[in-house]
Amino acid sequence: MAGSIRQRGKTSWELVVYIGFDTEARKRRYARKTFRGPRREAERELARFVTEVTDGGRAATARVSLGEVLTRWLASRKAHLSASTLDRYRVAITHVPDDLKRLPVDRLRAHHIEDLYADLVEHGMSGSSVRKLHWAMRQALAWAHKRGLTGVVATQGVELPPLRARKIDPPSSAAVRALLEYALATDRDWGTVIAFIAWTGCRRGEAAGLQWADLDLEGGSVLISRSVSAVPGGSEVKGTKTGDRRRIAIGPRTATLLREHRERCEERARACGARLTPSGFVFSPDPAGASPYNPHTFTRVFVDMCKAAGLPPMRLHDLRHHSATTLLKQGAAVGEVMDRHGWRTVDMVNRYRHLLEATDVGAAIALENA
Predict the structure, then answer these.
(1) Where does a domain end: 130, 146, 162?
(2) Which structural domain, as residue segments, surrounds residue 47?
């Protein structure tokens, strides 16, 4: 961090330390201090002042609390982030306790943050959730540093808690079959939603974002090109989780269910004086398909269906785990499973390998006979 001396009087000196560039005001920020005494002493004082500002012990402007920095940073990102991402950051920030939020940001140190993360883990927060909070903290403190509110980014060098692999325990095929039979017999519309998710392995948001133009029922395929996310006060339509589009095959039973669903939707639309359009949503509370379901609605209906069917508790996302595990057990290629589920890395597939039966019997026998 640079520092300079400017003589103001015979024994008066202005000490200046550069503390960052304010991108909003589009100007550089400096900390200033007046010192009286000989130049040699002023040079020593400048060195101490640089250290002081670097350590965050003195702010060039009025002290700002960590809580205010987090609030201002989040507001500054509204134009750059999706509503769902903003909400995820907003939720993560709620885990910062009030006493830490009141701490002046220029006094915040790495040990404060590490103590916070350790306490959150001790109270049950996962390593991945801590990382979401850390990402928000790191960006907010870098934002504050650029504006001269602190001389140090306290998240630098912070040791994060380890990531523990989440245990995957997919439901049995028998349980999935029982659920689909009950759902399709009880409510054909919602049964179609659940069957579509189970037989395609797509995410709930991707199913909610499906539009009529995405269906090729004659060719037996669907295009997964968008997703719906729940946000405060409603939902948001955006791209898929990875940002990629993928076309996946569907079986004849899925195609039949979707044809029947289309006929029911057209009948309801005509009764309301509306019509379906290619951009209409396949699964929609609106007769014309003008708006998608909130993904939370899918989850709520799924949980109720499981209870009504007398089945053990399941998560809607467990149908995706069942899809991947079933395909791997039946010998599907890793690349095929990745493409179908919209995964970019083999690491996602490797999470399921412990659920598969041993396939290296020949290797075991060969080693015994070597």
Answers:
(1) 146
(2) 3-54
Q: What percent of the chain has pLDDT over 70?
A: 89
Same domain assignment for residues 205 and 311? yes
- Model pTM score: 0.68
pLDDT tens column, 60-109: 445 789 999 999 999 998 888 888 888 889 999 999 999 999 999 988 99
Number of structural domains in the chain: 3
Mean pLDDT calculated for residue range 151-169: 81
Predicted pLDDT at 274? 94
Average pLDDT, stretch 206-211?
A: 96
Q: What is the pLDDT of residue 59?
A: 42
The CATH number covering residue 224 comes to 1.10.443.10
Instruction: Give yes or no for residue 173 having a pLDDT over 70.
Output: yes
CA torsion, ordered 238, 243, 246, 250, to nearest 10 deg = -50
Would residue 136 count as lying in a domain?
yes
